Amino acid sequence: MTRLYLPTTLDRLRVAWAAGSFAPQGDVVVAEGDDEDSEYAALMTAADASADLLAGAGRRVVVVAEVADLEGAGRPVPLKRVVALHADPDDRPAGADPDDDLAWYATQEIPDLLG
């Protein structure tokens, strides 16, 4: 399995949740290795891309999904392939520290996050 880090926003996540699949828009980040440091670097790279999607204040959101191979990186990802979600705990102001960590959410918490 290949782990993908998909930058998004809460609005785009709402659309994906309703559709039952997540269509990557923009950069799809893949960790260089399966060690913790590589995965964290991939997460933060995707977080930076999420901040670019916001173009201002809001919550960075990164969807983490596992696909069979990298060929799946450009296609819609069924929500059953989502293994976790990372997001800012609260709206962050434009220009906030890009190195701030994101909170981890289990997939069953996504409806609460969107609510």
From TrEMBL:
- A Pfam match: DUF6912
| InterPro entries (UniProt xref) | DUF6912
Q: What top-level branch of life does the organism fall under?
A: Bacteria
Name under which the protein is recorded: DUF6912 family protein
Q: What is the lineage of its organism?
A: Bacteria, Bacillati, Actinomycetota, Actinomycetes, Propionibacteriales
